[in-house]
Amino acid sequence: MLFETVLEERHVARAPERLHLTPSAVSHGLSRLRRLLNDPLFLKTPKGVVPTARAVQLAAPIAEVLARVRGIVADAGPFDPATSKRRFAIGAPDGVSAVFLPLLLAELTRCAPGIDLAVRQLLPEAGEATPARAWRSVWGALEARAMDLAIVPVAEVPLRFARRALFEEDFVLVVRAGHPLASDPSLRRYCDAQHLVVSLTGDPRGFVDDVLARKNLTRRVALTVPNFMFALAVVAESDLVCAVPRRFAAMHAPRFGVIALDAPLSLGRFELSLVVPRAALTDAGVAWLAALVERASSSSRPARTRSTSGARRRAAHGR
Q: The domain that contains 184 carries what CATH number?
């Protein structure tokens, strides 16, 4: 804390007051730090001190260590969501977080107004054939406490993690109002359309391509964007077609004037799971947050899309 305080104040004389120490204790503490780190750390100027290059280099890792220590100290006391000032991090694909976040924020406003959240965007690693491998980087991030819990489409997790099944999900297609696919959502027209894929890395191949390949079909991916919300905005102003989670489409497509359609072939279903390190559940705050997210997720319900078979019948009758 001494290093952090002097770095923030840029003045050794002001540090004792903030730390409730004597000037002598601060001076001796700085001397020990300088010997330990083999660097002057702070250089005197007429207006105070400036950090050395080594001190600047150490600032971020020291701040991270102190944040962890403060978190441990905060966790040691009883957790009361009504008075807590903690900050939690949740990892999820944005097509999932955009569904549960409004309900979660409303609940936090009601019962835990001092708690802050960070939402981390998660997407699968490109080129992996199984969910276990596609989402494996999540396990390391959870164990490093880069996030407190994650919501990912996996049915099995390593034994050191607890998993709670939230809901099953599938994908629907979104197109702009008046798109030709809306009146004739045939498989041929779908494959002939230009497609948009959500990819954090820009890799154009997605799970839909694997589904098409099993039927000896292909498509053209004309654009990739890094998240589903951006995808809706682009689809609304173009002839691109995109596959998005059903609950996400039901909740957010209307505001963009985008239409959701059932796909002309099965894109599969998957189960979304809340994943938390078992060790982290001993933290009353994390356990409380997990239960809150679970309730917020279960409260969302998918809406019906326009049926492709119904659209075909309307097209056949000129409607």
A: 3.40.190.10
Q: Identify the domain containing residue 60 by its residue range.
A: 2-76
**Dihedral class, residue 38 (left if φ above 0, else alpha if ψ from -120 to 50, else beta):** left
When the pLDDT of each residue in the chain is averaged and rounded to a whole number, the result is 86
Average pLDDT over residues 270-295: 93
The residues, ordered by sequence, that sit 6+ positions from 205 with a Cβ below 8 Å of its Cβ are 126, 127, 197, 221
212 C-beta neighbours (distance < 10 Å), count: 17
User: Could you write out the DSSP letters of every residue in 210-255?
Assistant: HHHHTTT---EEEEEESSHHHHHHHHHTSS-EEEEEHHHHHHHHHH
> CB of 181 within 8 A of CB of 102?
no
Assess whether 161 and 181 both reside in one domain. no
| CB-based contact 60:22 (threshold 8 Å) | no
Q: Cβ distance 150 to 92 under 8 Å? A: yes
Half-sphere exposure of 146 (CA within 13 A, CB side): 13
